Structures
1.
Amino acid sequence: MAQTFSPRSILLCVVFLFSTNVLALSAVLGIDLGTEYIKATLVKPGIPLEIVLTKDSRRKETSAVAFKPSQNAPKSGSYPERAYGSDAVALAARFPGDVYPNIKTLLGLPTDDSIVKEYAARHPDLQIDAHKTRNTVAFKSKATEKEEAWMVEELLAMELQSVQRNAEAMAGPDGNVRSVVLTVPPFYTAEEKRAVELAAELVGLKVLSLISDGLAVGLNYATSRAFPTVNEGGKPEYHMVFDMGAGSAKATIMKFQGRTVKDIGKFNKTVQEVQVVGSSWDRTLGGDALNYLIVDDMISKFVETSAAKKASVTPEGVQGHGRAMAKLFKDAEKLRHILSANTDTATSFEGLYEDIDFRYKISRATFEKMAEAHAERVAATVQKALDVAELDIKQLDSIILHGGSSRAPFVQKQLEKVASGDKLRGNVNSDEAAVFGAAFRAAELSAGFRVKEIRISDGSFYPAGMKWTNAQDKPQQQRLWTDRSLLGAAPKEVTFTNNEDFSIQFYQQVPTSEGTTVDKETKVLTTKNLTATVASLVEKGCSQPDIQFKVKLRLAQENGEVEVEKAAVECEAEVQEKGSVMDGVKNLFGFGKDKDQQPLNEGEESTSSETSESASTTESTETATTSFTESSSSGTTTTSTSGESAESSPVPKKQLVVVPISFTLEKAGIPSLPKAELTKAKDRIKAFEASDKSRRLREEALNQLEGFTYRVRDMLDSEAFTAASTSEERAALEKKAGEASEWLYDDGADAPREDFKAKLKGLKDLVSPVEKRIDESRKRPELVKGLKTSLDQTTAFIDTIKGKIAEADAYMSSLSASASSTSEASSTVTAAPSKDAGEFDGLEDEETTSTTTTTAVEDRGPVPPVYTLDDLKEITDLSTSILEWLEQKLAEQDKLPETADPVLLAKDIMEKTKKLEKAGMDLAMKSVKNFDKGKNSKKKSGSSKKSSKAKTKKGSTKTDSDGSEPTIDFKEGENYIKLGKDGKGPSAEKIEEMIKRMAKEQQDKDKDEAKTKTHDEL
């Protein structure tokens, strides 16, 4: 019978499968996109906020990617080897033209920007090209000369892909990381943010949101704290996050507070709020700038050495030498870190430039003197943030330090001058607070996690507005948001008097390096049907001067881009009885009255529009595209009370007509990548990834082959291998292994993966037969012993059951022989009473009958067997055949030498053992089924006895047996046969022991019932 499932079971299975898929896909990633380092945190069920480790088990990865040129020209369809992080930086001295560090500073910038020019001067070997359509930075690689220049976004995408691979390795086999939240500096413009989003898109990452560095630190700070509740009289806290990393310095002031809000039902809840109130930055004040101070000092002292003077070395020559600059910059960073904890340090270079050696010493005092101008910029950054937030330094509760460069002694001295020393706080992880905040935000935005409710509001950081040409062809400009405006805040409604299609340009006001500001376009809104809509409204009664075009605008919380929530024209018009303005506009866009649009019912006739309109003097219609609101009323309405059909006179009313306008909202500024170029860039990265994977697989195959050749040498020296193999086999193996080893270091250096696999297979084909002999020889004794034990147990079990069957048959024969004498005794006991019998003589007869019955129950003989001889036939035949097979195979195996392939295999022995155990298990389960049948028959027998007892009158006779044979019963709901953890059933002895126990329990139960029966009849 097929097994069926209830609807609830099916629903639970569906929910389980769905939840499993959701959990598998719910992993999210928070990434702190730093200038020098990239850090990532994974959030997955079972892995809450865990730092993603690099392949070297480091908690952060150097922000660099390198193309390692191959010795030979790369083959068609292949790319050079890529290196990431510290591996990439280590190649800078050898291949300075193919190592790309700190590229975050170049995102979204044109090639003529001052920051790009400074980067090019510091990395002289890098070939910077302008992208052909976007005019942004691209790099021409020497290792991929046949390829077009690589966009900065493509290089950053490769770094993100490396982080993604590490995260998926941590998440496990079912880990699928596709959603991320990335941190960005507050000074990033719309163009730079789009560049980050493009890089993520190129490798298939979905950006849930961008979050500013300072807010990410503030969010992490708030996760473990509760702040004063403002609507209960508490005052908010103000904290500044001073973040100084490798590329820039940022100061972000935030307001932290609690707020009681409405929860589900009648309950309230308290949520935490973090709001950016002011921010400031210095785009070039960071660790790199401090490193360049040391590099410049190194160059100036190097050219003053006697050896350099003899070689006529100039500062320009050293600065233009890529390898020398890479060496200097690498050591300058080490020196700066050492000076944070030591007063002086030194380093040396061998063959720095023109084969000239150089030794350099520097003290902390010297370094701080060189950095005096930079130190003043620290205080300026803090003060500007206070000015934007309109706060005084005394109003700050603390200054939270973040970023590696903030630990520099001279930086902290400057902060102590601006604020008292007790305001500086190191109560967050200065390296990982931002990435933990980004991961918390990712979990909050993902539907698969539930986190503490913290409402955040990021800042726009740049003033923004719009430009357009009005109806009089005069250019107009209006500022909509300031640098303190919040992303995701309530939309702003702007009214235009334009009655014809036009465009609106949105812009950001961005400061330049010269101290001025420039309006950079971000988006363009263009109306599509404004002219036609206004003309239609005029025809239907709207006055053209009264028609207004209104747009609701807001800044998206995810990336700060302009969003349009609503665009519509409005006017007030009087409602007419026929051909009203609302009807005309609705009909223009295909929306008639609700009744006109409904299908007629069967047998219903259409009524005239006049009758429909006269039925009601006021009407409010709202559709997906047109809405009307009553603004005023003129006149009164009178109705007729007569029985005739009343036709009310139409009363004119003014109503506000709102008609949505179709529009397009396109990105402005740096052109977006065309679809074809975007697809090409994605394919190029996929091809690079496939090439890397192929290279990894080839290296694995090479390592496997090389390792196996060493293993063969050890085998040939092994006693076990020698005993199980012939001299010819060992000679062939030794020869083939030697040839493979020589080939590896000769022609095999550049061989494809298939050649390595073929060589490895050839060696394994020679080794496998010998290893199989050794393995079989090791396993065989124990397996044979186990099989023999199972056979002995099975034979003993069968003999025991057969003995029980013979004993039961003998008892039944003796019982049949004494049946006649038992019948005579019964008739004597149940003789009819005489006429002179007393009133209570019947009771004596009843007692005699009961006593006879009790005696019969107590003498039941042996326990009836639960098996028949037919039940034992299958397991008996199987046991006999296995025993014959084993004896035959053992005899054959004993005749073979150790160097011959075995005939008695381990898998065959295990298969026979499994069959025997299964047969025993089936026999045991058959006994359980017999118990079930016996239990059911016992219940039926008991019910029939009760009914016969109720019908028996006083003085009636009773037999000593009801004709049913005794059966074995067991407690309802209890399992006597239980499988072990390994899936194997009990042995034959255990089964026999259980059967005896159940039979004894049944006997005891029957005796108790007989005693109870005697008591009831008395």
2.
Amino acid sequence: MSFDNRVSEQQPTLEQLDGWCEQALSSALPEIRSEAERRLRYFFPTFSETLAEVSESHGFSSGQARVMAVFPSIKGPAESAKLMTWFLHQSSKVFSITYVVNRLRTLVLNHLNVMEDEQKADLRVSLLAAIRDKFTELPGFLIDDLTRTLALVVMFTWFDLPDSKGVIDSILEMGSTSDEHEVLALQMMRSFVEEFNKELPPKYISKQRRVVVTFRDKQLKSIFEHALRAMRSAIGDGGGGRDKRVVLSQALLVQRDCLGFDFIWLAPDEASDEAVAIQIPSGWKDLIQVEGFLDAYFEGYAHCGPPLSSQFVEVLVLVASIRRSFYMEAVRIGFVKRMSAGIAEILAGAMGLDDVENYHHICRLLARFRCIHTLVEIEDTPVYRTLLVAAAGFTITGLGLWEWSSNSIAPLLTFWAKVAAAHDGRDSSNSEICGDVIAATLPRVVGEHLRSMVQATARVASGESLADNPLDNTDALLENMALAANIARASYEACGTTVLTMMRDMAGEYQALLNGGQASAEAVATCEAQLVWPVYAVAQCIGARQPYRSQAEDDQADAEMFAVALELDHVVRQRLQRGVGGDPSEALELAFLHLHHSFRATYIGEQGYKAAAVYTKLTELVGLRDSNHVLGLVLDKLLFNLRTWPPASPVVHRSLQLFHDLSVGYVSVRQVAKLDSVKVLLTGHSGEGFRFLGAIDEYKPRALYYAGLARILFSASDVTPAVFAEFMRPWGLLIDELLAMPDAQLAMDHVRPGLIRVLRDLRGFLSAVSSKSNYTMFFDWIRTSQRMSLVHRCVEMQADVKVQIAALKFMAEFVFNRTQRLNFDVASPNGILIFREASRAMWAYGSRVLKERSVAVRDVYKDRYKGVAACFTILARLVAGKYVGIGVMPLYGDTALERAYSVSVELLKQFPVPDVIAYPKLGKATTSLLEVLLAKPNIDLVPLDDAAYEHVMRVCVEAFDHAETAVSSSACGVIDGVLTAAIENEGSDVAKLVRARSADITTYLLRAMLNIVLFEDRPNDWSFSRPLFCLILLDTQFALQYTSQIVQYQPPERREDLIKALKELLSSTEFVLTTTNRDRFTQALTQYRREVAAKNLILMVPTSQTLGAPVDIMAYSIAATASAISPDEGEAAMAD
């Protein structure tokens, strides 16, 4: 065992520690930061450092985990915590306290449970004392960090120390001393609530949940009650003076955090800010269901200015979100009435609404209140009408304030969308429950929202407003328009007329502007930017159609709006064709595409619902008789965009995506295939009219286009070779022309882009070919006239790496057995022919890379590794496809297999192992290839020598830390395949390699995997368990010895449980290679994970001061411990 004694064993001065902390956190030089961190780790170990942090692994022979050196007086976590708290009390430097608090938090999180109860209590007292002593001189964030660490100690000792629960009470009592201490107490309670509400890593969840349930039911209520008293006291004192205002602010923040507590452990990604009700416990009724509870908040809002007033409303938002079932019916009626009256009073008097925070939270209050409470309790009372009238006036005004508070638009629309959802505009009985107010308001809300957005867009376009352009945030635009559409659908006759009228009026103004002949480009651009809003409104209204609620007159309204939008689109297209008015509007074109998408999704195809009324009206207005005519119109629009817009424009990408959507639907693709324009497109798909086809910078647009064409072409079940040949004819002519060129001409600058385009086009087309018969037609076509030779000439071209990559990626798609499309008949030679073609391409590219490996390149990934990764993908797909009997190829002298394997192994040996992590795509391709090649059926065919074997194992170990879990799982699969082959066939070459390197490689792999399984928490334990079983089988003695030494360095409090868990793991099965034994070991490893998680058995990294008594895991019993390994032998084993 080796130690790092480069740090002095004398205790450093306070100045030295302060200096190192400042260097570790603020130095711009990595070397200085690293050195300072190393020194501080020596004096303040957390015992949670990973083995990688204390190891210097440079090879199999010296890559063992070294024992971490620590200060001699530190024998375990308790001593380290004591030294940290001493430093915490002594130092006044912000850097020092920041550093030591973070270290202390890590230590508490992982190793508090190994301390004695007295040591835990001392740590808790010391932390609380540090907060009390330093709260006047430290910044707020450090007080928060210290309190959070204290909260962790309290959480983890909740059931161990009876007085831990009393810490919260003592903090609350401290608040009665003075206003200054009240502020501190409230600030600490905020930190406690946030820390208890924070989800810890999975291994702590079980314990945390048990504690939090008790905290939620008792202490959280006490904290909320204390904050209520502090708020009422401050309000009673008039809220004057700086200290009272600070107390009031902190009290409101504590209430906010208490009400925002996750009472039912709902995952954050499952919660919606505006829709989830707060599941407050019933035990809180005596605090909330009291007379005048809401009065304090409304009075505080009325009498306190910003920012306190906005905090009052923020708490009201949460109070309004409390679940309806929390209240008994009578109490709920009173609550809803008081909340409605209070909101109406604020809105009617515009109280405090000149402050943007107040205004925004009032908007949120409206939305949240209506989302949780249906208000049926007060529908027949005057307060309901008062609320709706006040909300209507407030909304109409607020919708025009987009530039002032843009985030408040969505809550206002949400309120009216909820109101509209319960309103039926056709039911006259609604007038008895304020239906008249709702019916009159909904069209105003929809119209005002559109008008305000139109005006805001014009102001931004003209430079009058400095706000961001609302058209730039497409997600928010679509979200708000979806809410407006839901509002409109509730009263479609009135709201639809509003949208239609606005669309017609604005379209008429646009037409007049163009007909005037004097319109400037700026005026046209502004007008088209404004037209975006009504077009999106029409699109969202059509998309919001609900078949079970929609009637014939609604479908006719959709048809009218759609027809007006089509006429506007026609006018815009005519302007572009005439070349007047400047550049086209990208936002308007995207809106038109969204309109076509919405109409198709609603009325055409798989998700469409047949509605005769819409087509009857469309026939009358624009002559569109059925869905086929509409699809033809949509396709013409898409083709026009592809011909006119620049390749990089979002319009092209959205058009191609819509074209792709049309081609993937079972019904829509057959409808599209019957269109005359599509039939013409299939015969002239590579025409120069499509500007995006002339670009070579991006592959995805071309892939979408040709994949869509392939689906349309093959949508008919009886595609004849003649039809297929006609489609392929443009490519065939181009390839034949390129093949006729000599190599020198083929490498010219004006020719190479054409090569890249045709290779990418064929690749995109082939990616959509899914059946064997269709693939066979493509295979026969490309082998005709030796067209595949173009691919080989491109691979051999040295002038342009892009051409080589395009050729290799086409080859990777060509050999891909996607949906079993390459499963040829038994007598077919096609599989072998494909393998030969791929092997030839790999050999040509790989040989050149190996020949020029010493030549420096500008970008090693683009110029070298990208092609290597493509070669690895080709071979992996060839072998994994299982459509070639590769085992028989050497028997009849076919060198394709040998060349493919040998060049791949040589390429693998050439790149440095760390590049597997540095270039994720290379790492993924490498491990995927190795997993296939070194699997049981193929490993005997791979030319694996000692150097290659060592390099493969290095790559696998490096891949354990890859960012993608799938890569580390593949690396485990590689090791498992090699070791399984060696064990099952002891006379094989692989077995000889494994035995020859068992002293270094096998031992290193076993140590590395044991370290991962014991010290780390990985999501793919199953993958690690398979090779670990083989490694233990190969060297059971070392596995027992190493795990025993790991236990020997753990604190005594953990050893018994840890030994028991390890003993059950290692004795769970017989280490003989059978499927049953493997599965048992995997199950045992899963059980071991559960055991250590339940008991919080987090292992400590071995240190120079923590070596304990020796232990033999397999011979261990509770009554006595058999001493099988001496301390000297233990150190030697750790150093091996």
3.
Amino acid sequence: HGPPPHLHTHLQPSGRPRALVGMLSILCAFAWIAGGGADVYLNNPRGSNNKLSEQSNNVQNDNRLFDSQNNAAAGYQIGDKCNPVCQDGNRNYDENKAGAMQGVMTYYQGSELYIEWYAQHGCGVGHPNLRCQVILQYMTEADNSGLRDGTKRGNQNTAGGQQEPPTEEDAADLTLGQHEPFEYYTACKARERNNGLYTADQQVNDNRGATATRQHPGGNNNANDRHGLECPEERDYYPYWHPSPWHDIAVLTDEPQARCGYYQSESQNVKAKGYCSEPEFNNAEACVAGDGAWKEQPAFEEPPPECVGGMRSRDNHNGNVRNGKPMYYVWRIPDYVSGRAVLRLRYNITTADLDPTALISQDEESGGPASQEREITDQFFIDETFNDRDPSTRRRSIFRGGPPILANDPQADWVNLGNGDEQTRLLQLQFNTAQVARTFEDRTHTFLVRPRPSSVPLGARLVNYNVRGRRGNIVQVYPSVEYDFVPPDLRVEQGTFLHFQWVGSDANPQGNAGNGRQGTDRSNLVQVAARGENVPLPIERHTLLFDAENDPDNAAGRELVDRFAYLDQDSIVTCDPESDDEQATDNCKQLNGASAYFDGGVVEMLQIGTHHVASTRNNDFSNRSQKATITVTRSPWEWYVVLTTTLSALSIVGLAIYLGIAVYAFRRPTSIFFSKRYRPRILRLLLKSETLQAKIEERKKYSRERRERLAASVMLSSAAPPACLGRPSDAGGTVKADGQAEDAQLVDSAEPKTLWDRCLRRLRSFGLEEQRLVLLVYLLLNLVVFLIGFCSHLDMGFQGSMAYPWAKGAGFTLDLNCAIIVLPTLKSLQTALRSAGATREWIPIDDPISFHIHVAGLIMLGTVVHVVAHIVHMSLVQGAPIIQADPLQLWDLSAAELQSGTPIWSQIWDLGSRCAPVSGALVALLMFAMGVTALPCARRGTNRLSKRLGGYNLFWRVHLGWKWIYVLLLLHAPGRLWIWFLFPAMFVAVDRLLLAHRQRPYVVLRTAKALARDVISLTFEQPEGFTYEAGQYVLLGWRGEWHPFTLTSAPEEQYLSLHIRAPNSLDWCSALRHRLLEEAPSAAEAAAA
């Protein structure tokens, strides 16, 4: 199927403008060969293959409605609705009986229709043997008010009559079927064919309008050439460039990423199609020159057809896909489709010989067998310039190169065995240029589309449940199929409505194998315990149509079970329980008294579980099986329900925790939760003021007693003799006042004693002291972690992409570094590590900020690799072909196939992955903000922008968002992060608990002095109960920032003193100096004045 034309003009010998349409694909042209081997067959809804009600396995008139190109044995007779059977006493088909050929299926708007077919030669993305497309279309009575199946039997029932051209009177004959309108065909026959198409070396007739194509080169000369009222040119090419009554449903192609955009934009669903008021002209220029008016038929104003990559199916095997399952497509019938309708399926195939890279397209110097006059750039756009200039003289001659690209059945010394003599060692290729490419077609019998019943809510899912197949064994029905329920394995949610409906024919050949009355199709539905069993379940154990165990008296449910099992035979015939006559209509045991059409109505699926069904008449073990499974699952929650429920649950849990803390704080006012900082506000609402004040006083008393005990312990420790005055050392010797040890064991040896000592000494000589070695080892640890992540995901990327393992390796390093980066900031951990003894020199605590910055740098590097690799991987997914959906889960699509072709935005907002890209982007954004605000120029406010934004204040506030980063990381990758972060999280929790017990009193500033070298001296009054030891530091808070400074006063002094270096380069310190030494005195002097 090719794109529409680029129009240009060519002059015939008569001088009349002749339209040429260039740059059209060769992918749809074909020619009729009886019994062709690449057929396409619709199984559900029942494909006709031009059959009506002939009592034969073969079609009687393959010209009746359309050109199928299929095997004559394919197709299903039209459905019947006689009560009970459309046969005479000799079991011959009786077309005059009421209900004959009236078994019309009815589908509801908004329902899901399971369209199933076989493509004999295979199709799908990546198929090694061919290029292909499958086009699904529909037409309704709004497009042709005369749409009908017809009732006239035999081989003289071609739509439009037996004359060529057809007459309007014959076309109006209601006994003849009709799909395309009469006016549509006459316009096609009058319109000049598209001379810009690739016709190879076929001699296409120029005098029979658009009925002549490469696959149908002679055109429609008489009624035997015409197939109903179908236009051959429109049938052969898609999208068609003139108006068509066919609406597009879906396009399944082997090249979705290259072709789908074009198919959708050129579909008549969305694009108007032009035609001339003078029907012989096929383009605007020629139309105007011929005194005609070029007009446009508006687009259908419907969504463009769904276009995806078809599932790859096996050729020469009825086109089965995986697991022995057929090709199918679920069509949700739109609300704008109504009335009588018909479905059409077109299947086009071609070989790869027409590809630009094909051997035949290469010149002889490159190893090709022959040269082309013109280079093929895209097999999709091969036009008339590749046609044979004189096709009548090329038959059976030695092929020496194009045009055409390949001649019909070309002969040549392809293997180069003739040693220069081209007349010897000839081989002929079986290459029919009328069939490469070739299009096959099948259509359903007409059906009705009605508004959905009022009993079915608009938002409810409605699924059609049908029966496929016809009477006979596998040899007799082939290439059609035997009986089966469709869909064969259906999975629906609780609350889904199933429309049970099927139809058969009473015109099957009498000799075809089967059960019950000869020539008839009948199917019922009973429930069985398992697929391997044949005995129906008793009604007391029924679960599909109603819950018999819990509601045994459900009259409506029991009636449904009866109807589905007996098909309403009691209302049609008087059943004879004694009759065992297979041909008797009163033998209801074999369903002989039932109609071929059964409508079980719409049934809501309420019983969760797996339900197996079978047909008692057709489920004939060792001959044929008619069984199926319907699985009903719990209704999935909508996203907003999930979100609301989750937030509600979290709110309830949070409230319960909050109330628990409030109760605990009330009962234990000495705990941290009753402190002024953490005291729950709800206590103010629930307690009387006297009760709350009493608890506050109790806590104050406890805090006062605690400070007194701590002060007493400090006084005792300060009164004890210094440890350096003769106190035994940890090494076993004594220490003098000058701090020198007398024990000889403490004297350091001049030479290293061990290999490890020697290695350390050598490394120190290269400037690698202990803490630098630790940093180097940490870098190597990052590399090892990266390799673990990389190698463990090596074959898990989309189509083996290497971007995925790169992203995962970087993600592993991010897990490690995000867990480590918080540790250097924990002050309680630093204090504990400073007393680590001999291992202290290996721990990076002397400059924890430096180590923190190094880890942050690794995080930035890992983030860049992680994000870039994921973007590359997502781009590969987006660029891959979109594979046809498998809503029934019959084909076991791989994760890569399910993901293939997904747009990047859909990948980002994929709820199945917890929207991991979104949380990852937020984490990266927060990290970037932290990195930027941590730069010296931003942190110190040395430029105008950073100073205006707050300088250090901005740095501090941004870094306070570190908790949200870890919350987002837990959402982003919960599978591994908790493993890396478990122990660091414990350290953080302990650090926060220890910090919560620190004293935080307000202090009164007594003096502030400026000293040399930008140093300020601050003296504070010592708060009541505040105790400390020499060498300790305090956190000084001002303007919402806290900074550590060592106390320069002694514990026995009654004040606190600090000496702070405050140059202009340190924003907070210089601001404090400016405030205390300049602004405050000036303000005081102004107030005194």
